[in-house]
Design goal:
The chain is mainly alpha-helical. Helices cover 77% and strands 4% of the residues.
Length: 110
């Protein structure tokens, strides 16, 4: 009976030692997985932060709005001058004579 109890206890110790070794191995693997996952998460969060910074709408300062508006007005003035110059060329430099209702009529040339 003593020998049987001793043998059962030895087997129990052996089984528990194997189970403990298996759990240690799993814990090591899980710790390694956690480290690699944490590294990957840190990289994703860093990338996400960079992307969000590019997508955020930043309010325009007064100086930026005023400069943009001035540039737009200067461009419109330049376009108006060009159009007025073309209108002068069409009116002053053309041989057309005003006809009925102010329409320009070209003289016939044979």
């Amino acid at each position: 009976e003593n020998k049987m109890a001793k043998k059962l206890k030895e087997q129990d110790v052996e089984n528990k030692s194997k189970a403990a070794a298996k759990l240690d191995k799993e814990a090591t693997e899980l710790a390694s997985d956690l480290d690699s996952t944490q590294t990957e998460l840190d990289a994703v969060l860093e990338y996400s932060e960079k992307i969000r910074a590019m997508c955020e709408v930043k309010p325009e300062t007064y100086e930026e709005r005023a400069a943009r508006r001035e540039a737009e007005i200067a461009g419109l003035k330049q376009a108006l001058q060009i159009l007025e110059g073309e209108a002068m060329l069409l009116q002053g430099g053309d041989l057309r004579q005003p006809g009925l209702r102010g329409a320009a009529v070209s003289p016939h040339r044979d």
